[in-house]
From TrEMBL:
<protein>
    <submittedName>
        <fullName>Rhodanese-related sulfurtransferase</fullName>
    </submittedName>
</protein>
<dbReference type="InterPro" id="IPR028228">
    <property type="entry name" value="Imm53"/>
</dbReference>
<keyword id="KW-0808">Transferase</keyword>
<dbReference type="Pfam" id="PF15580">
    <property type="entry name" value="Imm53"/>
</dbReference>
<dbReference type="GO" id="GO:0016740">
    <property type="term" value="F:transferase activity"/>
</dbReference>
Amino acid sequence: MNTLKWLENWFVQNCDGEWEHHNGIKVLTLDNPGWLIEIDLEGTVCEEKFFKDFKLEKSDEDWIFCKVRDNKFFGYGSVNNLTVILEVFRNWVKLVEGF
């Protein structure tokens, strides 16, 4: 399953009639240019789970940084790394879920 389809499924699994009214996923652009992904973890299996900050800098045009703060996953990356950011989130969720 591709990463975007997986994220759609993860979102649907967490929609319970309440969660989606207060939580969700944000995909924003940065002005450097790049991406910012913000995913609410409250009420999910990832809530309060440990995530080690992840940083990968290949060049000024190829980098990502991911962290969890205040029950939110934040992924930042250069313009060609949107999928990589989502894959970092996906791999962490799989670890948390025990897959």
